[in-house]
Structures are given as C-alpha cells and as structure tokens.
Amino acid sequence: MPNATSRVGLIQAEGYFFFGDARELSDKTMRSPTALRTSRIVLQPFGPEHFEAFYSTCVCNSEVMGFYHAYRASEPDTDRRARAQRDFVDHFARGAREYGYICWALTSGPSLGTPAGAFLGWCGVLTPALDHSLWGPEIAYMLARPWQGLGLATEAAAAVLADAWTRYDLPRIHAVVDAPNLPSRRVLERLGLQLIGPVEVYGSSEMVLYTSPAVPGSA
To answer: Residue 36 burial (CB < 10 Å; 0-12/13-18/19+)?
Structure first.
C-alpha cells in the first residue's frame, strides 16, 4: 500500500471520540486519534449532525446515487430518509459498536477554496457484506456531486486507510464497487488495492472486489 501509507504525513490528530458504549471499543481504538486532516479535508466521525447535509447533497442527488440500485426509483421523502438512515447511518453505527470502526464525515478545510466546514461526503471503514473473517472490513466513500473529480476521494481514502492500518489489527481490507463505475475503480487502484474479480454483493451481480493485505509493521 505505498500510495496510502505515503499520505500519513498529511494526517493531523485532534481529540478523541467514541460512538456508543466506550467499553465495547478496543483500547487501541480509544488511544488512536479520531479526527484527521489532509491538505484540503477535515475528517470527523460521522454523527447525527451530519445527516441532513448528507441526505440533501448525496441521497437526493440522482447522479451521486446512480450506482445505488435501491435508490434509483422515486419514493416519498419519508421512505427515502428511513432507507438512508438504515442503509448508511445505522450501518456506520453498527461497525462502531461492534468493532470500533469509524466512518468519517468529510468537511472542507481552509485550503479547498470554499467556506471551511462545508460537507463534502463521507469515507470510512465499515462492517462488510462479504465474509469479515476472510476479507476484513470494507472501505467505502461517497462525495457530493460538486466535489467529485477533484481528487478528494483519493485524498480522503488514503488518510482513512493509513489510519486504519495503525488503528486496527487487520489482516486485510477490501472494497466492492460496480464494475461500470470507472472513476471509483481508479480511486481504488491509485490507493494500491488489487482487483480480485467479479463478486455478487449488495443485491447486484455487477460488482467487482478489490483488496489489499495489511502493510508490514502496521499492526
């Protein structure tokens, strides 16, 4: 993972955070920094205060959700909100509760050229749909449409990966992505993840699996 680990120098630690009962999290998780900075992004644990921005900028945007099959059809706002809460926020919370995994809300830093603190999207380590013991956790990310194509997904995911290798004792980490989603696949390849091949997951047979073993000395 040379590309991911080379970004460690961009990360700045700030404070500590836990989601749920602190007794459920490992000592290693609690000792580790839980706010990160890259050259353009501030990463903080995704919390309830981020939901409205996430919902309005991402979930309600058909381009952002184009590869999320369950979100292609129109539905009442209350139903879509409940789906987003279940599919994303509850999923983030389950990973935090069971393993100490953190999903990070991405907000703009002062060098991005937009007012500081603007919501950009999210990136995190999640409990996977695939076999956890075989493939490890999943890294996933989503950017609001105005922030796509600027290298921010790679920047954020590199910071999250570098943090994950030192925070958790991971044998490997993986990502799944729709095969036609070439921009997202390029992000994973820039991060050093290797293509394994097609996989059926999240109700789709058009997905591909990328994975990487833990970097030496990260545990």
So the answer is: buried
| Span 204-213, pLDDT tens digits | 899 999 999 7
Q: For the residues of the chain, what is the DSSP string, one character each?
A: -HHHHGGGGG--------SS-GGGS-HHHHHS---EE-SSEEEEE--GGGHHHHIIIIIT-TTTTTT-GGGSS---HHHHHHHHIIIIIHHHHHHHHHH---EEEEEE-GGGSS-TT-EEEEEEEE--SS-HHHH--EEEEEE-GGGTTSSHHHHHHHHHHHHHHHHS--SEEEEEEETT-HHHHHHHHHTT-EEEEEEEETTEEEEEEEEEEPPTT--
Would you list the domain boundaries of the chain? 2-169
Q: Is there a contact between 173 and 136 (Cβ–Cβ < 8 Å)?
A: yes
Residues 133-157 have pLDDT tens digits of: 999 999 999 999 999 999 999 999 9
Q: What is the mean pLDDT of the chain?
A: 85
Model's pTM, two decimal places? Answer: 0.84
pLDDT reading at 34 higher than 70: yes
Q: Among 3.30.870, 3.10.450, 2.40.10, 3.40.630, name the CATH number for the domain at 2-169.
A: 3.40.630
Cα 172 off chain centre by: 16
